[in-house]
Each structure stands twice: as C-alpha cells, then as structure tokens.
C-alpha cells in the first residue's frame, strides 16, 4: 500500500471525479498564485488523460515544463496518465505509443503498471508482487524508462520525533558566526520546491529520448550494423535504458546528545541518479552450444549527489560545543543478479562473457570502466523496441571495446562475482578520512560532492532457442549507499565517535527490472540492388499471406543497395521504377518467391522483377 504524505503548502486536493474520455488540462485551470516557474522547458506537444484524477500541484508543475498542449492524441508527443487509468485508456495509449509518444505514468501502481504493459506485449518496470514502489512518476519510451521516486514518502527514513526547540543550529543566536550560518542543514522539504528542481531531470530525459531517434516512423533505411558494439552500446536504437532517481536522506536525525541538553538533530535530503544500459544480443543455434544463446551487455552508473547531505555542523550546549561532519559518502555498493521471469536464479545457464570491469583497485588508481571482447558468430539477432534492427552480421563478429578510463582520488573499488548465481558486486569505498580534523578537508571531496560509480559486464545465458521470443529475464539490483558522520564534544580531541547510516528508503534497496529479450527470431538479410540505368522507390516486402513485413519509401538512385533484416520465410518484393529526372512512375514491379534463410544474405536486383499489370 502506498504511504503517501502530501502536507504541501498548495493542498493536494484531487479535482472532480474521473472522466473516461481523454481531456486536455490547460493553463486556464492552473492556480495563478503559485509559482512553479523554471527555466527548463520542453517544446513537445503534451496531453493529459483524465486530469481530474491527478493532484493539481503535479499538473501545474508539469504544465510549466511542457507548455505546449496537444489538440488530440494524434498530435501528442508526451502523454500523462495515472497508473490506475492505463487500462481505461488502453486503446488511446496504444495509439499514442505506436505514433512514438512518451507515456508518463503519474503515481504508478505496481499491479496496474505490470498488468497494462504485459497486456500489450511490452516489458514492465515494476514488480507486481511488491505492495509499493514509492515512485512519483514513471516514463516509458521504446526500450527506455525513467523513474522518479516520490519525495514525500519518508516514513522509512531514519527519523526521530520532531523537537521544535532543535530547529536552530545554534541555541545562542547572539554568538552565531558566519561559519555557524553555513552549518544550517540543506532541506528539499515536502513542498512543490522538490518538483521545481527534480522535474528538470524528466525534461532533460524527454528531450534526449526524442532527440536521438524515433523508432515508429517506419523508416527501415537504418545505418548498417558493422558488428562493433562499441558504437552502439549506449545507443537507444539497440539498448534498453533505465534511468531512476532515488531519494536519500533523513528528517530530524539524531547525531548525539550532551548530558542535560536536547539531542543534536539534522534534516538532510538529496538524490542518487541511477542509469542502466542493457544491450541484448542473440547468437543463433547454428553457432553451437558453446556460443549460441543470449548475451546481455550491461553498463551501469550511479551518481550520488553528496553536497546537499554534507555540512560541518556546530552547536553550543552551554559551555560545551558539538562539532560534526554529517553526512558524507562512506561506501556505495550494489549487487546485480540475473534472474528468470519468476525471480529465480538460473544457475549454470548464466556465465560471464568477460570479467566485469572495473576490477578491484587501490585508492587513487586509474581504472577502466569497460572491457574488450569479441565473438565469431554466423549471425546475430538484435533489438529495437521489440522490432528487428538490422543488427545482424553474416559470418562476422560482434565486439565491445572500451578504452575509457577514470582516475578517482581517495576512493578504492572492490569487485567480486558470485560463484553460484554469477552476481556482480561492486563497493566504492571512501578512503583517507581524517577523524581529528575539524575542517571540511577532513572529508575527501569525492565524499561530499557528486560521486560517480560505474561498472560494465556481460552475462551469457545458454539454453535459449531460435524463434523463442517469450523467454525473458529480470535484473535484480540491490543498492546500499552507506553514509558516515563524525562528531566530537567541546574540542575535536574530546569525546566523540564515527558512525554510519543507511539513508536510502528500505523499499528502494532492492529493485527489479524486466529485461527486454533480444530478437531470437531466425532472421536473414535481403539486399535489393538497382541497375546503372534505373531509379527505384516505394519498396514493399510482403509475406505470402499479403502482410506487409517491411518497407522503404525512400527513392534509390542508380547502382544503390537497400538492405533489410527480415524473418526467415518466403516473400514477394514490390517496388516502383521511376524517371530519375521527373520522378514519374514508369511501372510497378514484383519479385516473387524470394527465400530468406537463417544468417544468410539473399541478393535480388530490379532486373529480376516482373511488371505488375493492374
């Protein structure tokens, strides 16, 4: 059950009851006396389905960032809907998705989310078995997903009861110095201020997704995949991207206590940005049992925004002064495991294609965050939002070569792999903390500023079969950022100690992400050539039942070649011959009974065509 706390200054009163018909929420219905303004805006046409089911504070904040209103679902590039309204608007949402719109679920619910996306044959990003996911919103576009944690769910943070007398960082205002003012805790707060800052990341993600590529234009004239994954491992045409923002922090956190005084407490909140790219590749069974199966190339990074958490805390208790460093990054760690769709380990079926990187390193060392590897195969499948991508090489190889490296001061890395479940575990440890130092320099810069932790690996799963597009796997990710704090009384050499705290909501420490499986259908390549005297356009490939399999409306000049990846089978290829100067259609032609076989290239020419008599 969602634990929603919305004590906002702009009340979270729901609007009128839901209307089943799609509606547009315009600026006229936004409260004028509340400032949600921000410099970050996205010039994409947006549509709100059933806005009466949405808290008005959320609609207002989003409309400030997506100011262009779509007149209909046909024009919408971004569609906002509550998770509970997914099934009601199924037909409308499917239409929007097919046209390349981003679907944003507000207040997502695990059961509604997974039920809807599975019903339309897509992957889901929430586990229906969990009671809550603590998300404010979830956006889906093709193979990419963006998740933002609800900042108002703080019941599982390490908190103490609020003591109104402890709100000031100094109990004796007359003695406050500029240094004391700097110790005032950084707060995000439970107001729309959070939306005014963190929703910017949604806008940036949206712009980036729409700016890279649109899968749904029907244009099959894509760049040919050359077998080198290095150029495509982060390309959304080939990779599944998961972006999740986690809230970390504590409210009224007790640091320590002087004998007869009230406890020292602080409130600090920040975020961790998690980004995962998963590039699935399938190797056909013709390559033998030692090479065939699924390959999942994974790159993952976590950026811990430590600055809002850290501060040098100082407070007088009569003649005794408390000093504290709170909070700084002590140890960021995660464990990634590959599971089957029922969340069971898959044992000996999974292995590592290459040793995960970076491997364990000492403090201040330069390390590589990727690896070089290659595999000779007779053909490989691919993925592009569940559609064939052209990611196939005939008698070639696929490789991933990463030479990028990092040098990080005051941090060491420990990497280990599980023997039975082939899990990957990383720990990013902060070193060189100076516990006797009462200045900010006691904490290394990496622990009190933005800290990026990253890793790369590839799982190989044996036993998957050609034409089996139903078998799916799940990425289980256990995340545990551990933060430290040090305190002393009177002077830095007197009573005190160093402690650690887990500031990530416990419900968010174990995450499950369904992986979009590679295209395991047996595919082949069809190449169509024009002659040195003919211009061709409007190429359409039909199966023997007359279903359109692929098309390319782009005209082809003389001596050009069009390349298609299509499933194994028999096809008829129709096209037009045009006048190169006037674009006049000189005739319609067909090449009948073109055979496509596994991991092979079939070549046809306009010379093979017969004129169609209508």
Mean of all residue-level pLDDT scores? 79
* Count of beta strands: 30
Q: Quickly count the helices.
A: 6
Q: Helical percent range? A: under 10%
**Main beta sheet:** 11 strands, mixed
Helix/strand/pairing category? mainly beta
Alpha-carbon distance between the two ends? 63 Å
Which ranges are low-confidence, i.e. pLDDT below 50, for 5 or more consecutive residues? 1-37, 154-191, 213-222
Shape: elongated
Strand content: 35-45%
| Rg, nearest Å | 28 Å
Write up what this structure looks like.
The chain is mostly beta strands. It contains 6 helices and 30 strands. The protein has helices at 56-65, 90-98, 110-119, 178-181, 193-212, 445-448; strands at residues 46-48, 78-82, 102-106, 135-141, 144-149, 240-256, 264-283, 293-305, 311-317, 320-340, 350-357, 366-368, 373-376, 380-381, 397-400, 405-407, 411-417, 424-430, 450-461, 473-489, 496-502, 510-515, 523-529, 535-543, 548-552, 561-567, 569-578, 585-596, 601-605, 610-611. Strands 1, 2, 3, 4, 5, 6, 7, 8, 11, 14 and 19 form an 11-stranded mixed sheet that branches. α1 (56-65) packs across α5. The longest helix is centred in the N-terminal third of the chain and has 20 residues, at 193-212. The radius of gyration is 28 Å and the shape is elongated.
Protein topology:
Elements: E1 46-48, H1 56-65, E2 78-82, H2 90-98, E3 102-106, H3 110-119, E4 135-141, E5 144-149, H4 178-181, H5 193-212, E6 240-256, E7 264-283, E8 293-305, E9 311-317, E10 320-340, E11 350-357, E12 366-368, E13 373-376, E14 380-381, E15 397-400, E16 405-407, E17 411-417, E18 424-430, H6 445-448, E19 450-461, E20 473-489, E21 496-502, E22 510-515, E23 523-529, E24 535-543, E25 548-552, E26 561-567, E27 569-578, E28 585-596, E29 601-605, E30 610-611
Parallel strand pairs: 1-2, 2-3, 5-6, 23-29
Antiparallel strand pairs: 3-4, 4-5, 6-7, 7-8, 7-14, 8-19, 9-10, 10-18, 10-20, 11-19, 12-16, 13-15, 17-18, 20-21, 20-22, 23-26, 24-25, 24-27, 27-28, 28-30
